[in-house]
Request: fold
Amino acid sequence: MKKLLLASAALASAATAQSPTPHRRVSEIAAEVSADRMKSTVTRLVGFGTRHTLSSQTDPRRGIGASVRWAEAEMKQLGLETLQTCDTVTKLPRIPTPTRVCNAVGIQRGTERPKDVVIITGHIDSRVSDPMNATADAPGANDDGSGTAAVLEAARILSKHKFPGTIVYAALSGEEQGLNGGKILADYAKAQGWNVIANLNNDIIGNSCGSDGVCNDKQVRVFSEGPRWQGHEELAAEIRSKGGENDSPSRNISRFLDALAERNPSLGIDVMQVWRNDRFGRGGDHTEFLNAGYPAVRFSVAVENYNHQHQDLRVENGVEFGDTIDKMDFPYLARVTKLNVAALAWLASAPAPPETKVEGAVSPNTTVAWDPVTGASGYLIRWRATDTNRWQQDRPVDASMGVEGDACPRLDRDQASTMRLSCGFALKGIRVDDWVFGVSSVSADGFESPVASAVPGGAFQPWVKPAEEKK
Reply:
C-alpha cells in the first residue's frame, strides 16, 4: 500500500511538473514571434505606395482600400472570422467630404467566455508632411506599419491556440485624419456588447534610435491615463474624497504589463511606464476606446525619431527624411511584439477583473467587496501605500469559501450587502485611510486578471451614472 501511495504521489508530481506555469506558457507562445516575418509584412505594406485615408479605395495595388483588403485577407487565411468595420466620416479639417473609413478586423472567439474581449490594434493608414496629401508616396513603415505588423504577427501566432476569452486583431484606418478607426471599432465593440478587458494599441514601435542619436532598444513606453476620462466630471468629487488619481483601469493594465515583462525576461524588453494618456500633446487610437469607457494603453518606442515621422521623402543638408523601412530595427520590433503576444495570451486566459468596492472609514478594519466573476476559482485582494506604484501586499481568497451557494466568500455579510456587492472580506487591523485596495480574479490554472482598484472609476466596465444604475 505504501509503495502504491508513493507511486501515485510521484505520478502527481510528474504531472504537475509537466504542466507549464502561466508565465512559462505565455513566454513559450511569445517565443514564436519572427523579426524576419514582420519585416516581410512591413515590406508588403510599404509596397502599397500610400495608405492615406483619402487615397484610392478601389485601386487593386495602391492606396488605403488595397491595404485594408490585404490585411483582412491575411487574417482570413489564418482561419479567423474576419470583417471590415466601416463608417462614412466627415471630420473637418482632415476629412472635408464624406469618406468611407474601414478597419480590417479578425476575431478569435473564446471557448468559454466569448464576450470577454482583449483587442490589439495598430493603424494601417499613413501620411507625409501635408496631412491632406493623399497622392505622394507615404511608406508609413514605422508609423504605423510596425503596429500593423504586430497585429498580424500576433494573429499568426495566437490563432494556433485556444483561449477562454476572445482576442480581436484590428488594423485601423483614419488615425492620421482624427482617430477615426479607433472610434469606429470602439463603437462596434459597444454595439456587440463586448466586455473589453483591454485595448493594446501599438503605434510607432519599430525603431530604437532617435533623431538626436540617442538609442534605447531595451525598453518600450506604455502610456496610460490617470483618472478615467469617461465619466470624469461626475467622478471628480468622489475622487477628491476617496482618491483614485493613480488607479484607473488603464493604469492597472500598465502595471500588469510592467510586471509581466519583469517576470518573463525571455521577452527581452522592459516597460517604461509613462503616466499620461499619450505623448505630450499628441494622441492615438486607444484614446477613442478610453472615451467609450474601455481600458486602453499605447505602446510606443522608447526613443522617437521625428525625421522619420510625417515627413516627405527627401534629403536636406545631408539629413534623410521620411518613414522608410531601412530606418527600422526589426529585432527590437519583435521584442515589443513578444510582450504584446504574451499579454494577449495571458489576458485571454484570465477571468475578467471583478467590480470592486471598499469601506472602512472611521474604523481600524477595512472591508473589500466584489462581485463573483465567471471562470474565477479564487480572488487576490491587493493593497499598497497611496504613494507607491506597485502592489505591495496581497491576501488570497479561495472561491470555495463561499456560503449559501455564493461563488465567493461573504465573511462580512452585512457590509458586503450594504455595498451592493455579493462578496466581502474583512482585513483586520488595516486602515483604509493609508492604503489603496484592489482585487484580481484568478483562474484554476493560475492566470490572474489585472487588478480592479476599489476607487471611484476603478471598475473595468464602462462607468454608469448612479441614477442610471438604479433603473
Notes: The first helix runs from residue 2 to 18.
